[in-house]
Amino acid sequence: MSKNDETYTSPPAISEQDIISAMKAIPGYVDITPGDFKQIYQVAYTMAIERLLNSVTAGQLMTRTVQLLKQAMSLVEAATFLADNQVSGAPVVDDENTLVGIVSEKDFLREMGFGFNPSFMQIATHCLHDKSCMIGNLHGRTVADIMTKSPVSGCPEMTIGSISTIFADRKINRLPIVDHEGLIVGIVTRTDLAHAYRVFTGGRQA
Amino acid sequence: MNFLQKMKGTTQSPPAVGLVEVLWSWAGSFLGIGAVSLIHYKLLSQTDLLMIIGSFGASAVLIYGAVRSPLAQPRNLIGGHVLSAIVGVTAFQLVGGQPWLAASLAVSVSIALMHLTKTLHPPGGATALIAVIGGDGVHSLGYLYVLIPVALGAAVMLLIALVVNNISKTRRYPEFWL
User: Fold this and answer.
1) A200 confidence band (pLDDT: 50, 70, 90)
2) Which of A6, A68, A134, B147 could be disulfide-bonded to A112 (CB atoms 3.0-4.6 Å)?
3) Residue A35: closest CA among chain B residues belongs to which residue?
4) How far is B47 from chain A (nearest CA, A)?
5) Distance between CA atoms of B114 and B87, rounded to whole angstroms?
6) What is the pTM of this model?
7) Whether B68 and A30 lie within 8 Å, measured CB to CB
């Protein structure tokens, strides 16, 4: 288990005083010591977290209509496509529709010459100081040139726990979900993860 | 945690109950022990039969004073007393010539059996012990001891618990039957 998982599964610090207050709120003699209750609580909490993390799968979370890019698309075309669909990245497929790469805003920015970890603020600063906007670097290049090749992908059975771990460990924002034949059936983004709460509660609001 | 550190304890005593709870515990146990002792002293006084044994006092603590406790539930009350009574009588009949052995076997085997059958009820240990150290009055009952006073007395106390413990809005009994 990674260090991240352990922070997820350690329960909020509950004090014996909290437990005693709760026991006082229950009329009648509760036949357990606060210490024993705390121990039961901690184990039960860990198990509940495990159960939640394993109960929701990529199949339930993923967005099913995936915007796909072709390798041969020019970057200008690709940028227009992403902008029109209001997404910040998309998987790239070959002519057989198999996943060969993934492209995100960061790949564009990197291509424009903003270093390995580019951000919008860098561009803003650059454009303010220097009128040339480096967008020209994108002309004549294709999706295949800038995409991240052989990207990580998941299967529909993958649990929310392992998806979060992949996002954190690989520092990525989207995970294409492929079926047994390698065809893309959906995509899980960080936004989908944020909406997982709705899946946990069966669609009810907090 | 090492051997000596363990002896210092790790936690604190659960909070005290309110006055209302104290009153209901008093009322339940008064009525429960009242019922079995009335039968004992008023109905059975001319016979060789008993209705009350010391371990019922201990059961009263649980089923009227700690009604939520797993140890106080009907399965434990009836199961614990009956099993322990059988073990106690058997221990006396097999090794009664060595009372120290009969007594220790009666209690220890009862505890083991109660654990294995999920019927742990602390007064059961006393019920088993009484079968050995209870004198001629108890010894002459033989296995009848299991039915009267043990099973019947426990059943009467259970009946009172079902009535008294469910009157108050803040109390309920049992938590479970089986």
Assistant:
1) low
2) A134
3) B11
4) 39
5) 11
6) 0.71
7) yes
